[in-house]
Amino acid sequence: xxxxxxxxxxxxxxxxxxxKHEPITYPEPKRGNHVDVYFGTEVADPYRWLEDDNSDxxxxxxxxxxxxxxxxxxxxxxxxxxxxxxxxxWNYPRVGTPFKEAGRYYLFRNDGLQNQSVLYTxxxxxxxxxxxxxxxxxxxxxxxSLGNISPSPGGKYFAYSISRGGSxxxxxxxxxxxxxxxLPDTIRWVKFSGxxxxxxxxxxxxxxxxxxxxxxLSGSNEYHKLYYHKLGTPQTADVIIxxxxxxxKRNYYGGVTDGGSFLVVRESQATSGNxxxxxxxxxxxxxxxxxxxxxxxxxxxxxxxxGKLLVVTNYDAPxxxxxxxxPAAPSPENWKTIIPEAENVLGGVSLAGPYIYADYVVDAxxxxxxxxxxxxxxxxxxxxxxxxxxxxxxxxDDPEAFYTFTSFTFPSTIYRYDLNTHTxxxxxxxxxxxxxxxxxxxxxxxxxxxxxxxxxxxVYKKGMQRNGKNPLLMYGYGGxxxxxMPSFSVSRLPFLEQGGxxxxxxxxxxxxxxKKWHExxxxxxxxxxxxxxxxxxxxxxxxxxxxxxxxxIMGGSNGGLLVGAAMTQRPDLFKVAIPIxxxxxxxxxxxxxxxxxxxxxxxxxxxxxxxxxxxxxxxPLHNVKSGVAYPSTLAVTxxxxxxxxxxxxxxxxxxxxxxxxxxxxVLVRIETQAxxxxxxxxxxxxxxxTDIYSFIMYELGMKPKFARK
Length: 709
Known about the structure:
- With 709 residues, this protein is an alpha+beta fold.
- Helices cover 18% and strands 33% of the residues.
């Protein structure tokens, strides 16, 4: 502890008097001599010791880094004004999409600055909603959040999961809905799980064995199991429903279809591709029947229809289709195609009244339609502008549904849809303190390095002059078949208000154009993702939107890898880099928590020499070079991130600080009592975004003016 105070005092003393243009003295960690050998090639890993999240040495380094970073950020004169602006624009009521179960409506609401949204319930839309669960009462600082919520089908019980400090580990708690009393049933070490009821008697969930001491936040997650918990019994009595001891690196998710007839088990070993198994929901002695083989294709069960399964799949349909599978004859040649593959990628599919709701991704924005059960298109759902729909909530026995629509300058708005008249009405519209009429959103298509056309959205204030001098923030993801769609975020507003341009790039590796677009950014094609991003920046410069001294880049998780790769491959092209909870050590990511499941997208350094050399060629940690002036960098991570462990960021930034030359600051911000991002309290979101955007604006030379309260 004495050493900790000494380090903090030194960092504060050295940096407090520094100006923006004076070099920063970074905490100097020890540089070890650890070396790994891959296929005869030695690879140094001098900061391997930073992988130990329980060591005093790591804690000292983290504390000293935070002091250095906060000391630098404290020089930014407009930082407090920006924080106040964030607090003002964040302070507006917002509501989640309602859903209905057993005659009750449920919805989340946040009055504005509440750390966690509150769960309300009501029996009709005309009633005043009553509080069911207020997670702000779970902790004094808002760091305990709600995860899954699940009313029992008979409406007697309500199960929910909670996360502490942003961790992926959850606990399941059960409430009596009538009395609001908590039952003694508490389930621990739940992870990557749903909560699926069997009548009102018990529920299915997924969990791991309790981790070894000190390994909860970094140890490899293995031997996932599907359990059944009967109410009123201890967790030790829970029945293992599905497991596979021969394949520890597979995950199992179980759910009862809405009709209650089937228990469907989804088996996966990566972030895409799965197998499906089925048995009668209440028959614990019946064997499971394999409905679909894994792991080359995706199979997602929508619901049961007359004893058959309605399934979305990309089997023989790279852009996805809807089929009806008879469990008695599940082979693909026996499937009945309900909605065939179309020109555009099929996204979300749900049942609502007598219809199948389906939305499509059209050049990275949504269109949606209602089909009858035979697959005939009945009605297009009309949207107010180009944007994204989500949260569709309906039931095949109900004449109403709810959905959310949003876009870059269109705050999330909830609509109620009447399935009898096929009309929408606003249920809740957000009232944010900004005027969307002052902004423009345009979509352009640029040519990447290999000639591929790639779309991106550009958002800016009306009157912007394309003079090559505008501050610009680029965002991207490019992986795991995830489509980056237009969405509203208050965190971007101050940057836009001050004349900044926001750009969202739809990189290969995502799901915007289906399986082939995803595969074009996987494994030995991963460099395409970085080339797309770099080409996007070059297009923006050539078209006079900006110049390299005015470009900031940001991305989280796989997007953090994107930022790390872009800044190490083209440090001359960007002024500011913000890698958030990034995957930055591509040789060792698979050894921590759930990292092994990402191998389908990344490949593994131990699978072949060819794959090892490909990963080594772009791994951000291993491509930091001495004597290079890198962009001003603020890497962001959190101590409870057990998805992408903070060691990725720790090692990358230690390497960057030791080799970087020039005057640009290279800093790391390490949040406490926070994880990969889910469940982060509003107070921490405001603090984090204040630091990120004040750093971006400061380093881009912006001189924002914010009105003080």
